[in-house]
Design brief:
mainly alpha; 2 helices; single chain
Amino acid sequence: MKIGITEIMILVVGIGFVVLIASLLPLIYSLTRTSKELEETVKDARDTLEKIDKTIDKLNKELDEVDEVIVGLLKTLNSASKTLNTVNKKILAPSLGVVSFIPALKFGWDFIAKRKKHKSKEV
């Protein structure tokens, strides 16, 4: 039985193919392990995103409530501003002339009180 060049080449190619597959086995195992880890990471990421979505929903509800409070506060402040403006126009502005005499009346009252004290000391 003679072994020809073709059979030797087929044998060399076969051995080379077996060596190639044998050298790729650790890579395939590593890729499989990495794929499993990636699946776990993706699952954890999905869980985290679900939690974030729930948190965002809660925050949106709370912000809606805060928005309602702010709108109510603005209405209250607007009403208070209108009320104070009305008080200013209807009560304070017309009575400003009379109110300006109060310090003068106090000064006069104090002056009279001092004179009475002086007279009572002299007698």
